[in-house]
Amino acid sequence: MIVRPTSKGYKIIAGERRWRASQQLGLTEIPAIVKNVDGLKTIELALVENIQREDLNPMEKATAYYELKTNFGLTQEQIVTKVGQDRSTVASTLRLLDLSEEVQGYVSRGTISIGHVRSLLSLKDSIKQKQLSEKIATDDLSVRDVELIVSGKKDQADSTKEAKETQLTPKLIKSPQIIDLEDSLRRAVGTKVSIIEKKGKGRITIEFSNNDQFESIIGKLKTLTGSYS
Question: In the chain, fewer beta carbons within 10 Å around the N or the C end?
């Protein structure tokens, strides 16, 4: 804990959470470093302490780094030394502030990760950044998915995958009898019917789009089975 002397005792600069924890434990003393610093230096030390907390989200850290840089005139090297992070981490965190407000919101809420952001930052158009961020959130895209989208390779990869699947799936040729039976069942139940038959085994698929249609199909099937009883 770091404190500075005042006319009434000491004022906490950094480590307030440790002090609160010691109060809850009933401790009357706690180790502290006393520093004679002015008000501006106090704010700087408190800000550095706040950055080092583990529960800050990336956008909060980016804002804090920016304050150290602009309000206190610190270089990136000085920030690196004070917060104990490597240069690349500090630099990439500061770049989060280049994102649009909407995208920053996704980062703050943890909807998109730093890995996603690296690819998003390569898009200079803020509208495209926003659109892709929304897609990441709704479609739960992986970092690799986003990398492929940004590089323009995802559509190509999807087309190749679809082509391979088509080649691996043999085309089913239905007999005229099966086609006639599908048509008869379609007219009977009022919806699309598909029959897959191979070597005496298979399945019949009856499609429906809502509960009302489902109930209607069940009623028609009951009528059909009743006519054969």
Answer: C
